[in-house]
Specification:
It is found in: Membrane. The protein is α+β, with helices and mostly antiparallel strands and 446 residues long. It contains nine helices and 14 strands. It has a five-stranded antiparallel β-sheet. A five-stranded mixed β-sheet has the order 9-11-12-14-13. A two-stranded antiparallel ribbon has the order 1-2.
Length: 446
C-alpha cells in the first residue's frame, strides 16, 4: 500500500473498531451485572417481606392469603416463592408457584446463608433464584427454614436485548462520527505534505525554482534539504555550462589555426594527410567528451521542466532534409502532440538528431521515427537501408565504431546517444526494421 493516508486510515479504522468492540463488550457486561445485581437485591427484599409476615405454628408456616407483591398471588405471573423445611420439603408456596412445573429451587443452606443463582427448568427456561436460610425460634420450637424466591428471566433478557440494540445503535453512530472526524483531522494533518507535492510539481513544470511554503517543524529537514539540493544543482549546472562554453571557445581557435597552418605549410602529402586526420580526430574527441559531460549533468536534472517532443522532431527533420536534399529522403513522424520529455532540450535534440542523421545517411528513400510512451519514453528510428548484422550491433555502439570506414562521419553519434540513454536510466538497442533496414530504439526511463 503506497498511500500514507490509506495506511493511517486503515490502521485508525482497525483501532477504532477494536476499541468500539471492547467498549461494547465492557458496557454489555457492566449492564448485565448491574441489572442482575439489582434483581437479586429486589428478590432478597421480597424474601425479607415474606419473613416479616410469616408465622410458624406446629411446624407450619403461615402467611397472609393476599401478599403485598401482587405477582405472588397470580398463577404463572413470573415471580414465585416457596418455603422449605430442614429436609428440603416444601411447607409453603405462593399462589403463583402452585404449578408443579414451576421453577426449580436449590435448597440445603446453612442458617444465615443466602444464595443467588440462575436455574433452568426442563424446558430450558431460565429463572433467577434467591434463597435465604434462617433458624426460626419461637419459644422452645426451633426450625430451619429456607425462604426462596424465583423470577422468570424473560423480562431480564428482553431488557438486556433492548439495551444491546440501543448500545449498538449509539456506538455505530459514534463510530461514523469519529471516522468522519478522523478523516477530516488526517486531511488537515497531511495538508503540508500535499503542499510539498504541489510545489514539487510546480518546480517540475518550471513555474518556480524552490519550495516557498511555511511547513511544520517535522518537514523542515525535508524542505530545507530539497531547497539546498535544488540550489546546489542550479549552481553546478551554471558552472558546467560556463566551463563547457569556455572550453569550446578556447579550443576552437587553436584547432582552426592548426588546420589553417597545415593547409598553408608546404609538406609532403602523406604528412599533410596525417596531420589533418589527427586534427580531425582531436576535434571529434573534444566533441565527444563535451557531449558526455553534458549528458551526465543534464540527465541529473530530474526536476527539469517538460519539453514538447514533436516540435523538436519536426525541427530536426527539416534541418536534415536540407543536408540530404540530394537523396530526397521521405521521413514520416509518428508522435503524439501531448508527449513531453523531462530534461534539457539539448539532450533530446542530441539523441533524436544522432539517430535521424544515421538513418538518413544509410537509408534508400524512407525513414520513420516513432515516439511512444509506456513504461518509459521510447524513440524508435527506422530506415530502409542495408541494415546492421546482429553480430555487429553491439560493436557499433562503442566509441569511434563505424559501419563503413569510407562513409562520411566519425563514429560517435550512436555512442553519444547511448551515453545519454544510460544517463537517463535507459538503454539503446539496434534491431531489424520492418522497412528492411535498421531499427534503433532509445528508451529513457526518466
Amino acid at each position: 500500500m503506497r498511500s500514507i493516508q490509506a495506511r493511517i486510515l486503515l490502521g485508525a479504522v482497525f483501532l477504532l473498531l477494536l476499541f468500539l468492540l471492547l467498549t461494547h463488550l465492557a458496557l454489555d457486561q457492566a449492564f448485565r451485572d448491574a441489572a442482575r445485581t439489582a434483581r437479586e437485591e429486589r428478590l432478597l427484599g421480597q424474601i425479607y417481606l415474606l419473613m416479616a409476615v410469616a408465622e410458624l405454628e406446629d411446624r407450619r408456616v403461615l402467611l397472609p392469603r393476599d401478599l403485598l407483591e401482587p405477582r405472588l398471588n397470580l398463577p404463572a405471573s413470573g415471580l414465585y416463592a416457596r418455603v422449605f423445611d430442614a429436609d428440603g420439603e416444601t411447607i409453603w408456596a405462593s399462589a403463583s408457584a402452585l404449578d408443579a412445573s414451576g421453577p426449580p429451587f436449590p435448597v440445603k443452606l446453612n442458617p444465615g446463608a443466602h444464595r443467588a443463582e440462575i436455574q433452568r427448568d426442563q424446558t430450558d427456561r431460565g429463572y433467577l433464584t434467591q434463597e435465604f436460610a434462617v433458624l426460626w425460634a419461637i419459644g422452645e420450637q426451633r426450625e430451619v427454614l429456607t425462604f426462596a424466591v424465583a423470577e422468570d428471566l424473560s423480562a431480564f433478557e428482553e431488557e438486556l436485548g433492548r439495551f444491546r440494540t440501543s448500545l449498538a445503535t449509539w456506538l455505530g453512530a459514534m463510530a461514523l462520527f469519529l471516522l468522519a472526524a478522523l478523516v477530516a483531522a488526517m486531511r488537515w494533518g497531511l495538508r503540508p505534505l500535499r503542499r510539498v507535492v504541489a510545489e514539487v510539481a510546480a518546480i517540475e513544470s518550471g513555474a518556480q525554482a524552490a519550495l516557498h511554503g511555511e511547513y511544520p517543524s517535522e518537514l523542515h529537514g525535508l524542505t530545507d534539504n530539497l531547497n539546498a539540493l535544488l540550489g546546489h544543482q542550479a549552481a553546478q549546472q551554471r558552472r558546467l555550462d560556463h566551463a563547457l562554453g569556455d572550453l569550446a571557445h578556447s579550443l576552437k581557435t587553436p584547432l582552426a589555426v592548426l588546420r589553417s597552418g597545415v593547409a598553408e605549410t608546404a609538406m609532403p602529402a602523406a604528412a599533410r594527410a596525417l596531420m589533418t586526420e589527427q586534427l580531425t580526430r582531436m576535434e571529434h574527441l573534444v566533441d565527444y567528451q563535451l557531449q558526455r559531460a553534458r549528458s551526465g549533468a543534464g540527465a541529473a536534472a530530474g526536476l527539469a521542466p517538460p519539453v514538447p517532443i514533436r516540435p523538436i522532431v519536426e525541427r530536426l527533420v527539416a534541418a536534415l532534409m536540407k543536408v540530404y536534399r540530394d537523396k530526397a529522403v521521405a521521413v514520416s513522424v509518428v508522435c503524439d502532440e501531448r508527449l513531453v520529455f523531462r530534461g534539457p532540450e539539448g539532450d533530446l535534440m542530441e539523441i533524436v538528431g544522432n539517430l535521424l542523421d544515421n538513418a538518413c545517411k544509410w537509408c534508400e528513400r524512407h525513414v520513420r521515427i516513432r515516439v511512444l510512451r509506456g513504461s518509459g519514453l521510447a524513440i524508435q528510428v527506422e530506415d530502409d537501408g542495408p541494415g546492421i548484422p546482429p553480430e555487429r550491433r553491439e560493436a557499433l555502439l562503442e566509441r569511434g565504431a563505424r559501419a563503413d570506414e569510407l562513409a562520411p562521419g566519425h563514429g560517435i553519434g550512436l555512442a553519444v546517444a547511448r551515453e545519454l540513454c544510460l544517463a537517463y536510466g535507459g538503454r539503446l538497442r539496434i534491431a531489424h526494421s520492418p522497412l528492411g533496414g535498421a531499427l534503433v530504439e532509445a528508451r529513457l526511463m526518466r
